[in-house]
Write a structure and sequence with these properties.
Layout (H helix, E strand, L loop, with lengths): L2 E4 L2 E7 L2 E4 L2 E2 H8 L3 E5 H14 L5 E6 L6 H9 L3 E4 L2 H9 L7 E3 L6 H10 L3 E4 L2 H13 L4 E8 L21 E2 L3 H10 L3 E7 L10 H19 L6 E3 L16 H14 L6 E4 L3 H4 L3 E11 L6 E4 L8 H5 L5 E3 L8 E6 L8 E8 L6 E4 L20 E6 L2 E6 L4 H5 L13
Parallel strand pairs: 5-21, 6-7, 6-14, 7-8, 8-9, 9-10, 10-11, 10-12, 12-13, 13-14, 16-18
Antiparallel strand pairs: 1-2, 2-3, 3-4, 5-15, 15-16, 15-20, 17-20, 18-19, 21-22
Length: about 425
Amino acid sequence: MSSKRLPGQPHIAYRGDELFLEEASLNALAQQFGTPLFVYSKAAMMAALAAYQRGFAGRKVQICYAMKANSTLGVIQLFAQEGCGFDVVSLGELTRVLAAGGQASRIIFSGVGKTRAEMRAALQAGIGCFNVESEAELEVLNEVALSLGRQAPVSIRVNPNVDPQTHPYISTGLKGNKFGIAHERVVQTYQRADALPGLRIEGIDCHIGSQIIQEAPYLDAMDRMLDLVQAIEAAGVPIHHIDLGGGLGIDYNGETPPEADQLWAKLLAKLDARGFGQRALMIEPGRSLVGNAGVCLTEVLYLKPGEQKNFCIVDAAMNDLPRPAMYQAYQQIVPVKPRSAPEETWEVVGPICESGDWLGHDRNLAVQQGDLLAVLSAGAYCMSMASNYNTRNRAAEVLVEGGHAHLIRERESYADQMRLERLPLAATIAR
Ligand SMILES: *Cc1c(COP(=O)(O)O)cnc(C)c1O
């Protein structure tokens, strides 16, 4: 049987006239579980993790999967089994890690708006580190820790202000955004933290953005972090670990981000050259571990050719795949069983009552009603951002391991959606 791989998607291939993820027929999975359906490849996730592990061979590094990219328990369990820690941004995420068998001591807690209740629960669970994002948060964390008779392990998120002129992309590490502590205030903030009895300083962290596809911003951020570590330690506060965050991009449409191991070879060379080769490291990759491990299968409901545009209406929508509507993001859309007919140009759209509900503009496809399409690169920031808008049930999720399929999340039901709601009026009203 002929096999044709898709560019940038080593675990997806056409075999004969059908699309496979690992050894699993996507057509067969859609028949078995219905659509829209998320299907993830375990091998793809493990290969992405292995690229980081290769890069770090022989070093003291904790990889903390940034689980907001895909927080399904079955996905968390895979990374926990491989020894990963987790970067969480809410008590909900922390609760998922523990439910999936992850270790509390390998959890780091990021985010600009941690509540006291979240801090308390995380301290009681014994998490590894709080990545603190503001001076006010330090004070509150100190109070909460003291009230429990504990010391909170902390890292301070710094804003390395990586220059947008040289690296013009979406960024969270720039002056003028809500994340982290400004460069100029970092040393005094560490001194303040060091003086608070409820805190124990562990490290320093940054996270400069997402879908980063060049090396230069990471190298710049590392340099700035090392400058800060030198300044903080010169002021008498030891820093035990350096956390460079996540953000490495993936190939959605021909982008060529660095391989994790090659990027880290350069970053480690920089650490060595600057005398920090023995320092413990942490990283927080999200998208790059799971993004290209998943597809979303969807059925073509109707074709609606028009004078200006041809619409291909599918059964997945912006509630399942929010990235196009939210970020004008591009995800490849390919047929599960290609037709030999000539291609036409389609607007691929969902059924939701919003003009923003589109999945792809100007896509060349040979499709007919009832065909199955696969939206690629759907492993990150899709299901974890899915909603019930239009009272649509969230999709089911399947994890493929070779030819075996595990259902890791059932399709939601309408009863699931209405479970928490109450009718305010008595069931029968006398008139
Ligand atoms: C979102 C986030 C990450 C992961 O980002 P990716 O682009 O998915 O790798 C890591 N750290 C923090 C603090 C984040 O907010």
